[in-house]
From TrEMBL:
Region annotation Disordered: where it falls in the sequence: 138-161
Statement: the UniProt record of this protein carries the keyword Metal-binding: no
UniProt feature, compositional bias: Basic and acidic residues: 142-161
Molecular function GO terms recorded: ligase activity
Keyword Cytoplasm: no
Source domain of life: Bacteria
InterPro entries: Cys-tRNA/MSH_ligase (IPR024909), tRNA-synt_1_cat_dom (IPR032678)
Originating species: Nonomuraea harbinensis
Protein name per its UniProtKB record: Cysteine--tRNA ligase
PANTHER family linked to this entry: CYSTEINE--TRNA LIGASE, CHLOROPLASTIC_MITOCHONDRIAL (PTHR10890:SF25), CYSTEINYL-TRNA SYNTHETASE (PTHR10890)
Residue ranges constituting the tRNA synthetases class I catalytic domain according to the UniProt record: 19-242
Alphabetic keyword roster: ATP-binding, Ligase, Nucleotide-binding
Length: 386
């Protein structure tokens, strides 16, 4: 079964075997065009799903779209663009794609429940804050030793009880607003995801994923809110991918640091490279390590992708043979071990060079593993050779 690094425990933990599992992730932002830093955590979710489905686990994936405060027309345009990027990277579509603006009732009900149970308090002018003092586990996910200082939460509006308390509800400032017991307003920056996750997946979520830039404050706040409302730990495993960081520099708040490379997937296609070269470049690096996604890295990945597809097309014309089971077991074992895709790819390259293995066996092994790698390795079968 899959073992994954749990951000909360700081250890590689096994995903408990089950017939079905629920996973929640935040969609790329809809106030701007998604960048490659947004797509790396999306690939993490896709890999988790594909590996677990190989273990015959039925996945229900919920991708929450936070469109609060965004003009509807532009939000939908960015949302559709992100969906096209996901398709170009062979990311499986989620079963559920709730939008925050369509869950006003659930958001208001969640905030009201937190106030009623003493986990939140109303302030003058239509503001509601989460009471961080009532969440003893607050700070465990991010590892912040002093989460009550420099927490990144908005500090406008009335005085709150303590610096770490964050906004659950605020009066509207010219944007579309919703009715609530505290007056017309909009939710704070974190509560809509808790409401969407609870409404669509219930109060037990097996895995939640995202980029490391979301751990604090967004996921820290989500955990506190959801657990306070449910009365128990809602998310069983937290998995996060590192951002894109040239030269080991720390990624920015959107998960990407500008460098010698594209920012958006469209630039890759415009340069004549296969978009799946981005997927392969991601797979060549472990998801928890920083990655400098330069043009040289992408050109090398594109060349490798074309070579592997040509080899698979060549092997497809050979007599059929049972797949190279020993190689497949090694690659699948690497994938089960915290999604060690670099090792799995090295196993494939070793198999490619092994002259003792019949071409037909190589063909079957590459096709089998491509169900998880999703690089469209059979794409050149039947095409004229150059």
């Amino acid at each position: 079964m899959l073992r994954i690094y749990d951000t909360l425990t700081g250890q590689v933990e096994e995903i408990a075997p089950a017939r079905g599992l629920r996973m929640y992730a935040c969609a790329p932002p809809v106030h701007r065009r998604a960048n490659l830093g947004d797509l790396r955590p999306a690939l993490l979710s896709d890999l988790i799903r594909r590996v677990l489905e190989r273990h015959r686990v039925r996945m229900v994936v919920c991708l929450g779209v936070d469109d609060v405060g965004c003009p509807v027309e532009s939000a939908r345009a960015y949302e559709e663009a992100s969906a096209r990027d996901a398709a170009a990277l062979n990311l499986r579509s989620p079963e559920l794609s709730p939008r925050a603006a369509e869950h006003a009732v659930e958001v208001v009900e969640l905030v009201a429940a937190l106030v009623e149970r003493g986990h939140a308090y109303a302030a003058d002018g239509g503001w509601v804050f989460f009471d961080s003092a009532g969440s003893p586990s607050y700070g465990e996910l991010s590892g912040e030793k002093d989460p009550h200082g420099g927490d990144g939460f908005p500090h406008d509006g009335p005085e709150r009880r303590r610096p770490a308390d964050w906004v659950l509800w605020r009066p509207a400032d010219g944007e579309p607003a919703w009715d609530s017991p505290w007056g017309r307003g909009v939710p704070g920056p974190h509560v809509a995801c808790s409401a969407m996750s609870s409404r669509r997946l219930g109060d037990r979520v097996d895995i939640q994923t995202g980029g490391t830039e979301l751990i604090f404050p967004h996921h820290e706040a989500m955990r506190a809110q959801s657990d306070a409302a449910a009365g128990h730990e809602v998310v069983r495993r937290w998995a996060h991918s590192a951002g894109l960081a040239p030269g080991g520099r720390v990624p920015g708040p959107d998960g990407v640091t500008p460098g010698d490379g594209p920012r958006e997937l469209a630039e890759v296609a415009e340069a004549g490279l296969d978009p799946l070269a981005v997927r392969l470049a991601f797979l060549r690096h472990h998801y928890r390590g920083p990655l400098d996604l330069t043009w040289d890295v992408l050109r090398a990945a594109d060349g490798t992708l074309r070579r592997l597809r040509a080899r698979v097309a060549e092997w497809s014309e050979s007599p059929s043979a049972p797949m190279a089971a020993a190689y497949v077991r090694r690659a699948e074992s690497a994938l089960d071990d915290d999604l060690d895709t670099p090792v799995a790819l090295r196993v494939l390259e070793e198999l490619e060079r092994d002259d003792a293995v019949p071409p037909g066996a190589k063909f079957e092994a590459f096709l089998h593993l491509d169900h998880v790698l999703a690089l469209d390795l059979p794409a050149d079968i039947g095409k004229p050779r150059p």
